[in-house]
Write a structure and sequence with these properties.
The complex is a heterodimer of chains A (256) and B (158).
Chain A (H helix, E strand, L loop, with lengths): L1 H15 L10 H5 L26 H15 L3 H7 L29 E5 L3 E3 L3 E7 L3 E7 L2 E15 L5 E4 L6 H4 L11 E2 L4 E16 L6 E10 L3 E6 L20
Parallel strand pairs in A: 2-10
Antiparallel strand pairs in A: 1-3, 3-7, 4-5, 5-6, 5-8, 8-9, 8-10
Chain B lengths: L23 H24 L13 H16 L3 E3 L3 E7 L8 E9 L4 E3 L14 E11 L2 E9 L6
Antiparallel strand pairs in B: 1-4, 2-3, 3-5, 5-6
The chains are: A alpha+beta (256), B alpha+beta (158).
């Protein structure tokens, strides 16, 4: 039960995260815990504590040695920028600021793109196009540190293949899932104005955060994008005609 | 000329007597009054879904679109918010009497609110901060001030 609730919140965070720098903050978002705060953006994280006053002596210095040996793999200027070495009793190591370019080797999965009616649309009526992407966590190494990178879908850019694009915070939902009748407008539907075959695609903008093993997620500014495969839509014109027999009864009838 | 379905002529965009505020203080006071009225309307809606005024009547542009979208996401997830959001303080930023746009900083307290699921269970995130700061900008629309944007404040507000 609790897990389900937490999952719901995670989905909410994923879907509703704004496309914007500051992030939206309204009374409702604040109540749902979705406003960004300034105090979770600290420069330093503690990755280890060692007590130099330990009478067993070597433990503290060993910890420091091992931290420094990690650093000697890096050029000395990295030590100056990446590490703050304070006097005992505590050893505080800060990790470098991560930019979105540093995450080039981490590729979140491409979104899936589908629509309804699948592969078809009707001129002048909304065709529903839905992109699906979810939160992903990838483990790897970044700037010499073991890291977990978390990608969350923060926005979607739909290209409907007829020169129309749409930027949205949601990937959309099927008509049935949204409780709507077919051929009604949705957040991500599109109404084609002319018959033809169109190739739609969608890009998802993932916001990223990194965790260097401390359990603290550090947001990375910027977005990593991933593009869906192509989704072909054949847009037809619908005309109605009154006939006196079905196509089964009269295969040569109009429209059969 | 093409008009919308309201049937009313669009107001002249550059009337010489376009309303502005006599002073920064007056602009800030009007912005504060509008924002407090908006939060009152939001809180009233949490108690009674038919309360008036509709909170969205205080919103325009991005703030309006986001509020509608967010309410829909909540509904689709079977979630709702209980309890009143409180305005701890409102402070001015770069209000300017010559401008029709006013920015304020708002400290919101959510500690008396709960996020509840369809069964009434409390699903408020454990790490939700009680107080958060929002940078809100309002614009003059005719003679009314409307909330146009509401973003997480980059500076310490609360």
């Amino acid at each position: 039960m609790l897990t389900a609730a937490v999952a719901t919140i995670a989905v909410l965070v994923g879907i509703i995260s704004p496309i914007g720098d500051g992030g939206l903050c309204t009374p409702a978002r604040a109540s749902a815990g979705l406003c960004a705060t300034t105090d979770n953006l600290g420069d330093h994280i503690e990755v280890g504590l060692s007590d130099s006053r330990d009478s067993n002596g070597p433990r503290g210095s060993e910890a420091l040695d091992s931290a420094q040996s990690t650093l000697t793999d890096e050029p000395t200027d990295a030590c100056a920028t990446a590490t703050v070495c304070r006097d005992m009793p505590y050893e505080i190591i800060s990790v470098p600021d991560v930019t979105i370019e540093d995450l080039a080797s981490f590729r979140p999965a491409a979104p899936t793109l589908t629509g309804e009616p699948f592969g078809f649309g009707v001129v002048g009526l909304p065709a529903n196009v839905v992109a699906a992407a979810s939160e992903q966590r990838l483990n790897g190494e970044l700037l010499g540190w073991d890291v977990t990178v978390r990608f969350r879908p923060a926005g979607y850019v739909f290209d409907y293949g007829d020169g129309t694009t749409l930027r949205t915070a949601t990937g959309g939902a099927a008509w049935a899932a949204a409780g709507q009748p077919q051929f009604t407008r949705t957040a991500t539907s599109h109404t084609y104005r002319a018959r033809g075959t169109y190739t739609a695609s969608a890009r998802v903008l993932y916001s990223a955060a990194v965790d260097f093993g401390s359990g603290v997620w550090r947001p990375v500014s910027g977005y990593v994008t991933a593009e869906s495969g192509a989704y072909r839509i054949e847009v037809l014109e619908a005309r109605t005609a009154l006939v006196d027999r079905t196509c089964a009864e009269d295969p040569r009838g109009p429209g059969c | 000329m093409v008009t919308g379905c309201s049937g009313q002529p669009a107001p002249e965009p550059s009337t010489p007597s376009a309303p502005t505020f006599a002073s920064d203080e007056e602009a800030f006071a009007a912005a504060e009054e509008t924002y407090r009225a908006y939060v009152d309307a939001v809180n009233a809606r949490r108690e009674d879904p038919h309360s008036t005024p509709n909170p969205t009547s205080f919103l325009v542009g991005d703030a309006f679109a986001d509020e509608l979208g967010f309410q829909r996401e909540l509904e689709e997830s079977g979630l709702s918010i209980d309890g009143p959001t409180q305005v701890v303080r409102i402070s001015p930023t770069d209000t300017s009497a010559s401008s029709s746009r006013i920015s304020i900083l708002v400290c919101l307290d959510s500690s008396k609110t709960r996020l509840v699921d369809a069964t009434g269970g409390n699903v408020t995130p454990a790490d939700r901060p009680d107080q958060v700061g929002a940078a809100v900008s309002l614009v003059l629309s005719g003679t009314r001030l409307l909330i146009e944007r509401s973003e997480s404040a980059q500076e310490q507000v609360c």
